[in-house]
Specification:
Radius of gyration of chain A: 25 Å
Helix content of chain B: over 70%
Shape of chain B: elongated
CATH class of chain B: Mainly Alpha
Strand content of chain A: 5-15%
Structural class of chain B: mainly alpha
Distance between the termini of chain A: 35 Å
Number of domains of chain A: 1
CATH architecture of chain B: Orthogonal Bundle
CATH topology of chain B: Helix Hairpins
Largest sheet of chain B: none
Strand order of the largest sheet of chain A: 2-1-3
Order of helices and strands of chain A: HHHHEEEHHHHHH
Number of helices of chain B: 4
Oligomer: heterotrimer
Strand content of chain B: under 5%
Chains: A mainly alpha, B mainly alpha, C mainly alpha
Order of helices and strands of chain B: HHHH
Largest interface: A-B, 64 and 59 residues
Structural class of chain A: mainly alpha
Distance between the termini of chain B: 63 Å
Number of strands of chain B: 0
Number of strands of chain A: 3
Number of helices of chain A: 10
Chain lengths: ~280, ~130, ~80
């Protein structure tokens, strides 16, 4: 297997290196990729969409269909992860560990017997529980609002600086993942439950497709934001910029919810009780 | 000789990308462990993304955010001053999709581990043949 | 673009990729893959692809490393090759 793999790899690599002889030199300004369609994007994007960041303009306006179906692919991946891993917790023997927070004593409750939920002193802990995590918990609790604020800035300011819905959505999702890692999965599920997460995941794709359908309903092509000008009370060029912003919000919500859902499923192997 | 040297200087980036791609391909074919195969798949993906992004770079170009001043936005933009944004757009979405597919692949690996108690390909195949 | 910096980072990328494949511990693989992603992000920011570099820094070096660690935590660290 190893020898066959090595042979295939060397053959393929040799062929590809032979093919580089026909490539234009590296970073050559007149290369075919840089001479056909991209000058049009660079020269016209700011006067047609009022968005200085060409990447955002091309992503959400000129190639809006592409991004819409990429968002759908992400949504589908989140659903696939859920369908593959999620199981009912009631199945099989279950063990719960509780810690008496005053003395540090741990008790184990087996086979779904009644847990001391009414006692304040007992807290549920994971099977792999790390005791001294006060610094991590405090630092994460202070940092999470700032991470979320930065993520919102990245989504909102993607027109003028690097950023946009994908990056901001991933950072928003990462803030919830940090909460789940520093505390435990149950406390992150209290703040963003499974149903809320599933709704947000679909809502993001719906916002994107809905913006496109709104343009269609107002008598233009799908995802042609210029027609939305009366809704935003501005000229068609600015309406394109605002339409891009709506789409970026949809992308951000969908990506955030999908990242959280994949993390919840992978880290708890679908049981949603004990995380990383 | 000088021609060969200039060829090397203008093309060595592509050769290193191909090396990376082949490292990923080798891991996908020859490694026995499923998580190693997934890592190989991701290395292959990032090597292709790196190749695409490098197509867009231009000598003497700056990042594709147009210089503008509020109000008077009517000065002419020259395409040669900015690097090509099109590969960036295509690859930006590809990176996020790659992490979503990574999630699905890891979910499959966890499912396989729970069923066969192993991540090694040969042990899993042996268990399947026994049945 | 500075070609010395570019070449140094390219070398490090290849080294981390080979390391991630050859190390006999899946947790080490996950961490080295995170380092690989971060070096890739540096490479793209040198090329001027700031949006792609930002995405890779948040997605590749951040979230996908967490996914790998989570999957290794739920399965096993041991590997034969």
């Amino acid at each position: 297997m190893k020898a066959a793999g090595l042979l295939i790899v060397i053959l393929t690599g040799g062929l590809l290196i032979y093919a580089t002889a026909d490539f234009p030199p590296w970073a050559y300004p007149q290369s075919p990729a840089s001479t056909h369609v991209s000058p049009r994007y660079i020269e016209k994007s700011i006067e047609e969409t009022a968005v200085p960041n060409v990447v955002t303009a091309v992503l959400a306006d000129y190639r809006g269909y592409d991004t819409m179906f990429e968002t759908t692919v992400i949504f589908a991946a989140g659903v696939a992860c859920f369908l593959l891993l999620r199981i009912r917790v009631e199945e099989g023997p279950e063990e719960q560990l509780f810690r008496h927070s005053l003395t540090g004593m741990t008790i184990r409750i087996k086979d779904g017997r009644k847990a001391p939920s009414d006692l304040e002193e007992f807290e549920r802990i994971d099977a792999h529980w790390v005791p001294q995590d006060l610094i991590i918990k405090t630092v994460c609790r202070i940092l999470i609002p700032f991470i979320q604020l930065f993520a919102l800035y990245v989504i909102a300011f993607g027109h003028h600086s690097p950023g946009g819905g994908f990056q901001g959505g991933v950072i928003l999702g990462a803030s919830v993942i940090v909460l789940a890692m520093s505390h435990d999965l149950r406390s992150s599920l209290q703040r963003m439950g499974e149903k809320v997460n599933a709704l947000l995941c679909a809502a993001g794709v719906l916002i994107y497709a809905g913006t496109g359908a709104l343009c269609l309903a107002m008598g233009e092509n799908f995802l042609d934001y210029g027609i939305l000008a009366p809704l935003f009370r501005c000229d068609p060029v600015m309406a394109r910029s605002n339409g891009i912003f709506m789409v970026e919000i949809g992308v951000g919500i969908a990506v955030m919810a999908t990242m959280i859902r994949i993390y919840n499923n992978v880290s708890s192997a679908g049981r949603y009780d004990e995380g990383l | 000789m000088t021609q060969l040297l200039s060829e090397i200087l203008t093309k060595y980036n592509y050769w290193i990308y191909i090396t990376l791609m082949m490292i990923g391909l080798y891991a996908m074919i020859a490694k026995n462990n499923l998580v190693k195969k997934i890592v190989g798949m991701n290395i292959f993906q990032t090597a292709i993304i790196l190749f695409y992004v490098s197509i867009g770079s231009k000598k003497g170009g700056t990042i594709p955010i147009i210089k503008h001043d509020h109000g008077a936005a009517s000065h002419v933009v020259h395409a040669a001053e900015y690097i090509n944004p099109l590969p960036h757009v295509l690859m930006l979405t590809a990176i996020v999709v790659s992490v979503a597919t990574l999630g699905v692949a890891l979910a499959l690996a966890i499912k396989i581990y729970h069923r066969y108690q192993s991540l090694e390909e040969d042990e899993i195949l042996a268990q399947i043949r026994e049945k | 673009m500075i070609w010395q910096l570019d070449l140094a980072i390219l070398t490090l990328v290849v080294v981390t990729a080979v390391g991630a494949i050859y190390i006999k511990d899946l947790l080490g693989t996950a961490i080295l893959f995170g380092a690989y992603s971060f070096l890739m992000c540096l490479l793209w920011s040198i090329m001027g692809a700031v949006d792609v570099a930002f995405t890779e820094a948040s997605v590749g070096a951040g979230v996908s490393t967490v996914f790998f660690v989570g999957a290794v935590f739920r399965t096993t660290r041991r590997t034969k090759d």
